[in-house]
Specification:
With 479 residues, the protein is an alpha/beta fold. The protein folds into three domains: 134 residues, D-Maltodextrin-Binding Protein, domain 2, CATH 3.40.190; 96 residues, 3-Layer(aba) Sandwich (D-Maltodextrin-Binding Protein, domain 2); 208 residues, Orthogonal Bundle (MetI-like fold). The protein is 63% helix and 12% strand. The chain has 20 helices and 13 strands. Strands 7, 8, 9, 10, 11 and 12 form a six-stranded mixed β-sheet that branches. A three-stranded parallel β-sheet has the order 4-1-5. The chain has a two-stranded antiparallel sheet with strand order 2-3. Helix 16 crosses helix 18, helix 17 packs antiparallel against helix 18 and helix 18 packs antiparallel against helix 20. The radius of gyration is 26 Å and the shape is elongated.
Length: 479
């Protein structure tokens, strides 16, 4: 029986560890990172398919040059960091070509020229930078708009608050938490045309060119193919048709007409996005189950090391618990997904990185309450067992653990709930779980309040069910 269990665990380990890595190498496609909320350059349409100027240009270029791409909507920061770490082959995300970025990335020929504008609330009296003195301005991390705002804030005396996606930046101005935001002109125009209650009050400044990028001195053939394909689609008119599709007059009138007929009620949004929501929920549940499985094994081993009569093992257990409980989950996730690959040169798939992150973090907490549960058993129990001639291992297995497990079970269930909630943090490395799904839906329909209310309700339903299970198990173990 023990051999079968060990074989099963070994098989699972191989599947999770080496299976995804082999899949990545077997795919004869380029993995391209992009933003999740940057319309009209990249966003999900009503069918939750990724579209936009950047996406359409990339696909048109790929078709011309005979290669395939796999789009990874991970967010701007995650996309750039993933390419720098060698996790992805390229990034296209409305990214300005700057000297700082050229030091770490190789860029294609420019494919779009844009400038930064300042937008304020629809009824705001603010018209220029001088009126920003002493006020708060919203910016988006890592963008040309953020760089431009930061270059002005000392001169005009305003403060900046940073967001990871455009929608939250816009909403901070709409709700009057900030008085203005800085954004690329076509992106801001598109947002305003599609219902964002803002207005542009400045002319485009800090003009720059967008470029497709790959890791420095790597994937040069991809840059060559992109440049060649870009010339072809400009020559045959495909490029102009793509831009007109999203920024021409028909692009403004079309979506507005469609928006008027869409059901934007809570139930309508659920029906329209049910496939995406179920997909995100499935990814969240799968992440939780897999992570808690490995975290439990890891936690039990580390917890038991903390109670064996050996100073080295005790110290090792304490150190592991201290490190992985002390590290913020967000930092640990980014370190594993982008930090380690940049050092080793070996790709780590996002899902695997998420499992490792949760295993280490949640496993440390499990180890702590395993250790605590065993320590909670009266020390006289071990002494009595040893006095009867039982060796330490047998006394632990037959006498201490059965009593300690009763103490630990409710904590195991509670940790399962915590792990479920912690999966939302993994959206930062591009895992398409429930929270990331919500961001993508909001980028399209701008119904932030309603979509987040739906996401919150889904989490609450699952957590409530797990809480009931925890209470039931606790009553059974205490009976």
């Amino acid at each position: 029986m023990k051999k079968k269990l060990l074989s099963f665990l070994g098989l699972l380990f191989l599947i999770f560890t080496f299976g995804p890595l082999q899949t990545v190498h077997a795919q004869k496609v380029y993995q391209i990172g992009t933003d999740v909320t940057f319309p009209p350059f990249e966003f999900a349409n009503k069918d939750n398919k990724y579209v936009g100027i950047d996406i359409d240009i990339l696909k048109a270029v790929a078709k011309e040059e005979g290669f395939q791409v796999q789009i990874k909507p991970v967010g701007f920061n995650a996309a750039v960091q993933s390419v720098e770490a060698g996790q992805m082959d390229g990034v296209i995300a409305g990214m300005n070509i700057t000297p700082e970025r050229k030091a770490k990335l190789n860029f294609s020929d420019p494919y779009y020229k844009s400038g930064v504008v300042m937008a304020v609330g629809k009824n705001s009296p603010i018209r220029d930078f001088k009126q920003l003195k002493g006020k708060k301005v919203a910016i988006k991390t890592g963008t040309a708009g953020a760089d431009y705002a930061n270059s002005l804030k000392k001169k005009y005396g305003f403060r900046t608050v940073t967001f990871d996606d455009s929608n939250n930046m816009y909403q901070d101005v709409v709700t009057k938490n900030s008085v203005a935001c800085f954004e690329d002109q076509p992106v801001m125009q598109y947002g305003i045309h599609h219902g964002i209650a803002l207005k542009i009050v400045t002319k485009p400044a800090n003009t720059g060119n967008y470029g497709f990028a790959v890791q420095k001195n790597r994937n040069q053939e991809l840059i060559t193919k992109f440049n060649a394909g870009l010339k072809k689609i400009k020559a045959n008119g495909t490029y102009n048709r793509i831009v007109a599709k999203y920024l021409g007059k028909e692009a403004v009138a079309g979506p507005q007409k469609q928006t008027a007929t869409e059901d934007r009620s809570f139930w309508g949004l659920i029906k329209q996005n049910q496939d995406a929501l179920l997909g995100g929920l499935g990814e969240t549940v799968w992440l939780t189950v897999a992570a808690i499985f490995f975290a439990t094994i890891f936690g039990i081993i580390v917890g038991l090391l903390g109670v064996v009569p050996n100073k080295f093992c005790n110290g090792l257990s304490t150190t592991i618990i201290y490190i992985f409980r002390g590290l913020p989950l967000l930092v640990l996730a980014l370190f594993i997904y982008t930090g380690i690959p940049s050092l080793t040169g070996q790709k780590i798939p996002a899902f695997l990185a998420g499992i490792i992150t949760l295993t280490l973090n949640e496993g440390a907490y499990i180890a702590a309450f395993v250790k605590g549960g065993i320590d909670a058993v009266d020390s006289g129990q071990m002494e009595a067992a040893r006095s009867l001639g039982l060796p330490f291992g047998k006394a632990m297995r037959r006498v201490i653990l059965p009593q300690g497990i009763k103490i630990m079970i409710p904590s195991f269930i509670n940790q399962f709930i915590i792990t479920l909630k912690d999966t939302s943090i993994l959206s930062v490395i591009g895992i398409l779980e429930l929270t990331q799904t919500g961001k993508i839906i909001i980028a399209r329909n701008l119904e932030g309040f309603k979509v987040w209310a739906i996401i919150a309700l889904i989490y609450l339903i699952i957590i409530t069910l797990l809480t009931w299970l925890s209470n039931w198990v606790q009553k059974k173990t205490q009976a």
